[in-house]
Specification:
The protein is mainly α. It has helices at about 1-25, 30-35, 40-75, 75-95, 100-115, 115-125, 135-185, 205-215, 215-235, 240-250, 255-280, 285-305, 310-335, 340-370, 375-395, 405-424. Helix 1 packs across helix 7 (about 135-185). The radius of gyration is 22 Å and the shape is globular. The relative contact order is 0.16.
């Protein structure tokens, strides 16, 4: 009986890789694309980049709970298809933007219609046997990061040789093809009767389900943690590519920036795959704390960078830390939320984290334009440190249904002792 879920999983994995490559071939270069319009300098480009991130985040925050509820009622596969087809159309619209305001509108629509990451995680979490969830979510997160690394690697040189217009067209078509592939070849045995009902009969409304989930202390803690982390990522997001440009001292750094973003994604993908498989032994709480603390330290080092090579190297190393954070938070959610509620739960999480992401870019943009690019790295590092300390204390008494690590370590010690006895 395991063959069908594996077939679905690997088809979805391939389609999502294709879609993420399409998105990320253009997404990291939006701060540079903005400069193709009537934008005066790097400070103004940073502000517009902040607006782009905020607009997309607000739109996703508003739409995510709606998509999550529809996923629980009509199936998760339909939401994956919707996110890919809708996202592909918005990428095509960006190709035809003639002003920075039109680009902002297209970015907002992308926030409403896209969201392939959450849609795929929800589908995987409900179609994969529980004993394989750690592996499946780790592989899926690794696929997100692999696509995010291959996209810039291909997109930078493509833009330099063929221009932004052609890159947006090709990228949009790639995302559309991925959506069609999911529709044709992925199967979902969705049973709408599993939806929770109200005490008086009838289906539970979104607000009732959300209120019920928010009364779960463990879910509320993870929701707050993920929102704060996403805010921190959003703060630094518009600053990094322009700081690279400032250090390079030249306008045409697309290929170099693409290479750096690509290596960062590859390292993150490798880490995600390992964390997804071994976090049960390391401990979810310990893994999350380690990822947050390491990110804070590396952000401080990035803020002290004096060359593109130094900043690029530190960004690649940061991929090790960020690659550990994302899959472990998704894994924790699947442990504390029942299967029939996961569409709604991930919808709530996507909405909350999108609000955090929405606030982050504008905050980072104004900090960077007022205090300089380096200050944003230091502020963000301090924020990560605070979140790490709070999460460690808040999660101390939460039962994550983890395997007994002490017993596992004892088994390892016992095997080592037996091996030494045989050698003697």
């Amino acid at each position: 009986m395991e063959s069908p879920w594996r077939r679905n999983f690997y088809i979805l994995l391939a389609a999502e890789l294709f879609a993420i490559i399409g998105f990320q071939a253009v997404q990291p270069f939006l701060p540079y694309y903005i400069q193709e319009f009537d934008v005066a300098d790097l400070a103004e480009a940073l502000v517009w980049a902040g607006y782009m991130g905020t607009a997309g985040g607000v739109a996703m925050a508003i739409s995510a709970p709606i998509w999550g509820t529809l996923a629980d009622r009509f199936g998760r596969k339909s939401m994956v298809v919707r996110s890919m087809l809708g996202g592909g159309v918005t990428v095509l619209l960006m190709a035809y933007a003639t002003t920075v305001e039109q680009l902002l509108v297209a970015r907002t629509l992308q926030g409403v219609l896209a969201g392939t990451v959450t849609a795929c995680i929800t589908l995987v979490s409900t179609t994969t046997p529980k004993q394989h969830l750690g592996y499946a979510l780790g592989m899926m997160q690794g696929t997100f990061l692999l696509g995010a690394s291959l996209g810039p690697l291909l997109g930078g040189p493509f833009i330099e040789h063929f221009g932004y217009y052609n890159c947006f067209l090709v990228s949009g078509v790639m995302v559309l093809v991925a959506g069609v592939a999911v529709q044709l070849w992925v199967r979902e045995d969705f049973q709408s009767e599993n939806i929770p009902e109200r005490a008086g009969g009838g289906q539970e409304s979104f607000f009732q389900g959300a209120a019920r989930l928010l009364r779960m202390r463990a879910f509320l803690i993870m929701l707050a943690c993920m929102t704060l982390v996403q805010f921190a990522f959003g703060v630094i997001m518009p600053v990094v590519p322009l700081f690279l440009q400032q250090l390079a001292g030249e306008d045409d750094i697309l290929t170099l920036a693409g290479l750096i973003f690509s290596l960062m994604g590859l390292i993150g993908a490798f880490t995600s795959a390992l964390v997804g498989r071994w976090s049960d032994y390391l401990g979810a709480r310990q893994t999350l704390l380690g990822g947050l603390a390491a990110t804070a330290i590396l952000l401080v080092a990035q803020g002290l960078s004096v060359s593109v090579a130094m900043l690029g190297t530190l960004m690649v190393l940061t991929g090790l830390a960020t690659g550990a954070i994302r899959p472990i938070t998704s894994s924790i959610i699947t442990r504390i939320v029942a299967e029939e509620d996961r569409g709604k739960a991930f919808g709530i999480i996507t909405s909350a984290t999108a609000f955090g992401w929405a606030l982050g870019p504008t905050a980072g943009a104004y900090m960077g334009s007022a205090w300089g690019f380096r200050a944003v790295f230091f502020v963000t590092a301090a924020f990560f440190s605070i979140v790490a300390c709070w999460a460690w204390r808040a999660m101390a008494d939460i039962d994550l249904q983890e395997p007994p690590r002490r017993a596992w370590l004892a088994a390892v010690r016992r095997r080592l002792a037996q091996r030494r006895e045989r050698e003697v």
